[in-house]
């Protein structure tokens, strides 16, 4: 099979805007979809961790997905976050979810249970067998405790319905191993915004990005420069975002990027407990960095 070109470049890992009562702000979500779409991102990622999926109810998730499909006026591919640490529950959610108009699901490595690598393979094989749309794996050991090893990912890449991985493991060595040995039709997508240029330099295909919520044009330019081998231009932009990438996660994701979006007038910075809005100190640092780099 050829590489699925729809998921090269930048997927914006959409935040979920809330109002002051922490209810979903659908006007803000519509504005965000328009903002990143006009900014040139290549596809939308709905209800990943950046969308605060752990504190979104199943009913709300269905509503957010339906709303995102309806207001995807540019017809961008949609990736939907659908995973968990209870395999049977994930399979039931796949069965119940309306995946019409969804181009792939993004499924996170099981968290908290700490399964073996063999358990991870069995988990994702069951999901891929059940899913009516292609599956992108998501490796994020900073949140799940477990790292999907390169050999595990390569084994799962043999499944015809598993088309790629978003890897936020931060290991350049593992990234290079995957670039060297993954099938040519297997998508390699960075989950670390600060490593896009480095990972694309060894053959990765793009990024599912937090920063792209607030700075879609700049981050799309960065990524495509890197994919196309224009590393001088990519590095210039990558270094401009270096401080941002640190600041965004000091008070947990998506607290920082939501503050950037509020500063830019896209939507509120409200989050749901147990997260708290950006502190005054972080807000000041983010605004100063945005001004210094010419992003506002």
UniProtKB/TrEMBL annotation:
GO MF, one term, reads: 4-hydroxy-tetrahydrodipicolinate synthase activity
Query: What keywords are assigned to this protein?
Result: Amino-acid biosynthesis, Cytoplasm, Diaminopimelate biosynthesis, Lyase, Lysine biosynthesis, Schiff base
Instruction: Give the active-site positions.
Output: 138 (proton donor/acceptor), 166 (schiff-base intermediate with substrate)
A single GO BP term for this record reads: diaminopimelate biosynthetic process
Where located? Cytoplasm
Site residues, Part of a proton relay during catalysis: 49, 112
Q: Name one GO cellular component term.
A: cytosol
EC no.?
4.3.3.7
List the residue ranges forming a coiled coil, or say none: none
Question: Looking at the record's lineage, which domain of life comes first?
Answer: Bacteria
Supply the PROSITE patterns for this chain.
Answer: DHDPS_2
Q: Which reaction does it catalyse?
A: L-aspartate 4-semialdehyde + pyruvate = (2S,4S)-4-hydroxy-2,3,4,5-tetrahydrodipicolinate + H2O + H(+)
Which pathway does it take part in?
A: Amino-acid biosynthesis; L-lysine biosynthesis via DAP pathway; (S)-tetrahydrodipicolinate from L-aspartate: step 3/4
| Keyword Cytoplasm attached | yes
Positions binding pyruvate in this chain are 50, 208
Q: Which Pfam families match?
A: DHDPS
What family is reported? Belongs to the DapA family.
Q: Which NCBIfam families match?
A: dapA (TIGR00674)
User: Subunit notes for this chain?
Assistant: Homotetramer; dimer of dimers.
Task performed by this protein: Catalyzes the condensation of (S)-aspartate-beta-semialdehyde [(S)-ASA] and pyruvate to 4-hydroxy-tetrahydrodipicolinate (HTPA).
Query: What is the protein's given name?
Result: 4-hydroxy-tetrahydrodipicolinate synthase
Q: Which species is the source of this protein? A: Dyadobacter koreensis
Q: Which gene encodes it?
A: dapA
